[in-house]
Amino acid sequence: MKEDKEFDSNETLLVITFKVTQAERLVGAAFINLHERLLMITEFADNEHFSGLESLVIQQNNTAADSKFKVLINLTNDMNREKIQDTMQMCEVDFSFADNKKDFTCANI
């Protein structure tokens, strides 16, 4: 019987979107793990250093040898792009900024 190679490793995708106003920075995050059939969603206010986001990424990143952890980031504007990029680099995770904003619409849910 042929095994499905798609789920050989524990893969997790973290999708992050930001809403930044003058009063607060809201971070919305969804963790998706198809191997474990797990979906977790959260939204929280964060500070200017994005320390809550950093803590969340570090806690959810599985460092096992057979695991893969990827972060996809959606920014409505590039105001905090460098700070968020620095935060992800400190967390030592694979990340990318969404070039296609259609990936973050609710039309195909």
Please write out the topology:
Layout: E1 10-20, E2 25-33, E3 38-46, H1 51-60, E4 67-74, H2 81-91, E5 94-97
Parallel strand pairs: 1-4, 4-5
Antiparallel strand pairs: 1-2, 2-3
Helix pairs in contact: 1-2
Provide structural commentary.
- This protein has 109 residues and is α/β, with parallel strands linked by helices.
- It has a single domain, classed as Nucleotidyltransferase, domain 5 (2-Layer Sandwich), CATH 3.30.420.110.
- It has helices spanning 51-60, 81-91; strands at 10-20, 25-33, 38-46, 67-74, 94-97.
- A 5-stranded mixed β-sheet has the order 3-2-1-4-5, covered by helices on one side.
- Strand 1 and strand 2 form a beta hairpin.
- Helix 1 (51-60) packs parallel to helix 2.
- The model is unreliable at 1-8 (pLDDT under 50).
